[in-house]
Write a structure and sequence with these properties.
It contains 6 helices and 4 strands. The strands form 2 sheets. The protein has a two-stranded parallel ribbon with strand order 1-2.
Length: about 200
């Protein structure tokens, strides 16, 4: 099969997927190359099951074993290969269509303004060549694309426009934590999630 692309992107995770989308919107013919399979959400996604906490998550287990045995590249590679051979129906490091977004827990935060100026403000790292204001429109575009859920008015974050979807309601445990925090003068803020709270 002949393939003719203007641009080829290696990896279909968050970075590759967004790059492909932007380039296609500009009219480029884009090819995505992925070394892994296409997963079936009906059986491959551990978090889809009510008893997910009791199931073995292939990615988590592989990472734990990888860290406890050896940190050298050769051992990590061998470990991954062995794991895949023994578990043909699972995946390691989410090598497949969607990449690590398949194990992404949905947190969608903007870097705060001070994070761009670590050296100037705190004396560590280096300052970014751009600042929060430079990225703010791109954050907004991505948040609307993903229908991010959140609430404005967080005193620890930069002022911003409303989120595409409202913040998710606090769980019963989070409500208990919020009441406890309030009793000592603190406030619990809902997390910003790339999990739409409405259609």
């Amino acid at each position: 099969m002949a393939m003719d692309f203007d641009i080829v992107i290696i990896g279909s995770g968050a970075g590759g997927g967004m790059a492909a989308l932007s380039l296609c919107e500009k009219g480029f013919k884009v090819g995505l190359v992925e070394r892994g399979p296409v997963f079936d959400p009906r059986k491959d996604y551990v978090l889809n099951y009510m008893d997910w906490g009791l199931r073995e998550d292939p990615l988590t287990q592989a990472r734990v074993r990888e860290q406890t045995i050896d940190r050298s590249y050769q051992t990590r590679y061998r470990l991954g290969q062995e794991y895949q051979q023994r578990n043909a129906n699972t995946y390691y490091r989410v090598h497949g269509l969607g990449g690590s977004t398949l194990h992404y827990q949905g947190e969608a935060h903007r870097f705060p303004e001070h994070a761009f100026n670590g050296l100037n403000e705190f004396g560590w790292g280096i300052d970014w060549p751009i600042n929060y204001a430079d990225l703010a429109p791109w954050y907004q575009r991505t948040e609307h694309l993903l229908a991010v859920a959140g609430a404005v008015g967080n005193p620890f974050k930069a002022d911003r426009e409303a989120f595409p979807t409202p913040a998710h309601a606090l769980s019963p445990r989070s409500k208990l934590l919020a009441r406890s925090a309030q009793s000592i003068g603190m406030t619990l803020q809902p997390n910003t999630l790339a999990l739409p709270s409405r259609s």
